[in-house]
Design brief:
The chain has one domain: 3-Layer(aba) Sandwich (Rossmann fold). About 40% of the residues lie in helices and about 15% in strands. It contains six helices and six strands. The longest helix has 20 residues. Pfam families: Hydrolase. This is YqeG family HAD IIIA-type phosphatase. One of its GO terms (molecular function) is phosphatidylglycerophosphatase activity.
Amino acid sequence: MFSKHKPTWMLEAIYQLTPEQLAKHQIKGILTDLDNTLIAWNNPEGTDELRQWIATMNQAGINVIVVSNNNPERVQKALESLQLDFVANAMKPFSKGIKEGVEKLGLTAHEVVMVGDQVMTDVRASNGAGVRSILVKPIVNTDSWKTQLNRAMEKVVMKSLAKQHQDMKWRSDLG
């Protein structure tokens, strides 16, 4: 029933994703959500761990583009110190922003993965665009008011998906 919301993989955090794992699955580019995936929604500074992860991806030749529903000013301000390209006003759960991100990367949908913390937006948009997805745990356990409704619906969806797919487990790598 909720197959359009099923993530390809589930990782505990985006920082666990390595160039080696991506290469194993022929992934050459990363699209990622911003709030609660890369940075805490209420702390746009980011962490040293995030900067190291981005540097590792850059050294491996793997481009990272942020795909966010936020407005361009908010995304640009949050990414100033990280020097990442982005797609704002992505309209997730629709696939518009994901498709724009794939186009910016200059890759095919099969060569790209989308990483996000929400099934209702990130994973649904990825699946709609034919892009594999990685669901990660939110960085912080609080959400902006806009996200709280999605989280309630997400619990229902995840419970249903877990019953149908016993392989849906949090992992530390893509396997």
